[in-house]
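Objective 1b. Sequence-to-structure analysis of UspA domain-containing protein.
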Amino acid sequence: MKKILVPTDFSIPAENAAQYAVKLAKSLNADILLCNAIKVPSETPIAAQVAWPLMDYSTLKEEATTELDTLVEKLCNTSGLDEEENVCPRIACESNKGTVHEVVGKLVKEREIDLVVMGMAGASGVVQFLLGSNSREMIEKADFPVLFIPYTAGFKKIRKIVFATNLDRHELEPLQSLINLANLLDAEITITHITNKEIDRKSKQQHKIDDFMKEVVAKVNHPEIKFEKVWNIDVDHGLEWIIDQQDVDLVAVVHHHHDILKRVFNGSHTQRLSRHIEIPLLVFPPDKKN
C-alpha cells in the first residue's frame, strides 16, 4: 500500500480520521494525500436570489489551502509517531471544486490511491457521515475501499480483523484485498457469517458455507485466517455483537445495494450502533467481475 487519501471538511471528526490515517500510514509505510472538496456558493441555483456577494472559487481555494497547510502542521506535531526519530509520513494536499464523491473519485484514479479514510460521527442518535451532503453517494457509488473512522476511535495497532460475509462469491476479490492489508499489518482475519438459526450439517446453507470456504482456500493465501458462525436474532444484532467484542480492531464488509449497510446507516439499528461504535469500518465495493 502506497497512498492513502483523506477527505476533510476541517471538522473535529474529520481531523480525528486524519490523525488515524497518519498513524496507519506510518505502519504501512504509505504516503498521505489530504483533500478538500470545494462547493462554490456563487455557482448554486440559489445564488441568483441572494442579494449579498458570495465567495468565488479562487477565494474558497485560498482558504482551503491555508486550512490544509495548518492541518498538515498539526498532524505532524501531534501524531505521536516514531517519537525517537520524530518522523511523519509524507503528506500532500489538494483542493478541488466538486462534491466529495466527485473530488475523491477523480483523485483515486489520477493518483492511484489504495485506500480512502473518512471520518464518521454520531449526532442526535444517528450515525452521520461527515464531509457534506454527498457522503451517502460516496458509499453507494464508490468503486474503491473506504475506511470509516468513528469520531471516538483512536488509533491502535490492528491485530484482529473481522470480515462479515453473506457468502457471496463477489466478496472473494475484496477479501483478497483485505488479506493483502492484513499481511502488511501482521493481523489475523476471522471470516464471520451471521445467521439467525441453527445450521444443520447437511443443510443447503452448510453446503453454501463449505463451498465458499473452499473457494477462499483456493483463491486466497493467508496463514492467520479462520471462519466462524455467529448466531443472533438478526444480522443487525449480530453485527453489533461483533463490534462489541473488545479484541476486534477492524470490521470489514462488502457493500451490496439494499443490504446490511443500508440497514446499519438508515434503520433503527443506527440509533443503537451510534451510541457505542468505536471500531473502524472498512467498506469494499463488490467484485463485479465474478
